[in-house]
Amino acid sequence: MSDSRPVKRAEEMVNWNIVFPNQANPSGNMFGGDVLAIMDTTAAMAAKRFSETQVSTVTVEAVHFAKPIMVGDNIKTTAKVVLVGNTSMMVKTDVYRDIGGNKLMKCVSAFLNFVAFDYQRMPTQVPILELLEEDETAHKMALTIKESAKRRQQELNEILA
Ligand SMILES: CC(C)(COP(=O)(O)OP(=O)(O)OC[C@H]1O[C@@H](n2cnc3c(N)ncnc32)[C@H](O)[C@@H]1OP(=O)(O)O)[C@@H](O)C(=O)NCCC(=O)NCCS
């Protein structure tokens, strides 16, 4: 059966924030929940821009807090749709701290799943992703994450049955 959905390129969303003292955890670096809120918002904007619909986060996968972010840091967050299903999109999201000298250090990364909604809040189809060469690695990672999340869910369902 042929797929009549439009084919579309994804646009990278980028935003910058400065880390305030009220975003610190008791150790003095940025609280992970606040980092995740910025990632979720930026990723939602990328998914919304791609699908031209309302979107909701359905899962957050492969979160890795690799390096701490400090109070006072300028942080850059990037987000791009790298895999689509029928009504869902996976967005790769990364957070970097500005370490001066025009250099960035990657601190946090994650893949967030979004579902596109119509105006009755029913899942609705998203465009087909035109995959660019520069996104092939992220796309492969997203496929692996999606497959392993599916396996994990099946195993959890067996435990719960
Ligand atoms: C998102 C939501 C509508 C999905 O409900 P559902 O009954 O599973 O809907 P569907 O079965 O129609 O699935 C819709 C899409 O979500 C995907 N999906 C559902 N559960 C998923 C999961 N755990 N992981 C990844 N994708 C998932 C499905 O694969 C499907 O994608 P596809 O069309 O590309 O194949 C529902 O879980 C919801 O409303 N959640 C709350 C979302 C929210 O409020 N988020 C804000 C943060 S709290």
From TrEMBL:
Domain HotDog ACOT-type: 9-120
Molecular function terms from GO: long-chain fatty acyl-CoA hydrolase activity
Keyword Hydrolase found: yes
UniProt keywords, alphabetically: Hydrolase
Matches recorded under CDD domains: BFIT_BACH (cd03442)
Matches recorded under InterPro entries: Cytosol_ACT, HOTDOG_ACOT, HotDog_dom_sf, Thioestr_dom
GO CC annotations, alphabetized: cytosol
Domain of life from the UniProt record: Bacteria
UniProt cross-references to SUPFAM superfamilies, sorted A to Z: Thioesterase/thiol ester dehydrase-isomerase
Gene Ontology BP, a term: fatty acid catabolic process
Pfam families reported in the protein's UniProt record: 4HBT
Family statement drawn from the similarity comment of this UniProt entry: Belongs to the acyl coenzyme A hydrolase family.
Name of the molecule in the record: Acyl-CoA thioesterase
Organism of provenance: Aliikangiella marina
